[in-house]
């Protein structure tokens, strides 16, 4: 296991060296960061708080893609897979904060998808509209619900199932964007 703080852009080159030393070049870059800053209502989101999400959610992804994409293009094979919350696609009340950074990530990935699809590299995005079992947010939600102050967020899903959904999307090479559990779309 290689541990790194992906919010620290200066640490990315060292991380890439460590990954290559252990695995060589990547066939698949799977990126699903979870910011620890939490959610905030859109009306309460400050410019600084929005900026705080950018390194982990957006900038580090770009840095990692720059490092690993050239080999994938050279091999005419590979995948860049990401997973984020469905609030990235559908604005939800009180779930802002990482949303603007995730929207930037989504736009970047959509553009990247169109640029590299004919070069043998698949870019797939999974947007999760469910609580993920054993996640920090799931634990917080359960604690709040037990205290009588929680909100029902709906469906709970096993992370292994989500991994299967994302991998299956990659295997089929379409659609490039999947919203779970709602529907698959190509937009």
Supply the key terms.
single chain; 187 residues; alpha/beta; Rossmann fold; two-stranded parallel ribbon; 7 strands; 45% helix
How do you describe this structure in short?
With 187 residues, this protein is of the alpha/beta class. The chain has helices at residues 12-23, 47-75, 99-116, 136-146, 159-172, and strands at residues 28-31, 78-85, 121-128, 131-132, 156-157, 177-180, 183-185.
Describe this entry's structure for a reader.
There is one protein chain. By secondary structure, this protein is α/β, with parallel strands linked by helices. It has a single domain, classed as Rossmann fold (3-Layer(aba) Sandwich). It is built from 5 helices and 7 strands, in the order H-E-H-E-H-E-E-H-E-H-E-E. The chain has helices at 12-23, 47-75, 99-116, 136-146, 159-172, and strands at 28-31, 78-85, 121-128, 131-132, 156-157, 177-180, 183-185. The strands form 2 sheets. It has a 5-stranded mixed β-sheet with strand order 1-2-3-6-7, sandwiched between helices. Helix 4 (136-146) links the parallel strand 4 (131-132) and strand 5. Helix 2 (47-75) packs parallel to helix 3. It is globular, with a radius of gyration of 17 Å. The termini are far apart.
Measured between the Cα atoms of the first and last residue, the distance is 35 Å
Q: Which fold name is given in CATH as the topology?
A: Rossmann fold
Integer-rounded radius of gyration: 17 Å
Task: List the secondary-structure elements in sequence, H or E.
Answer: HEHEHEEHEHEE
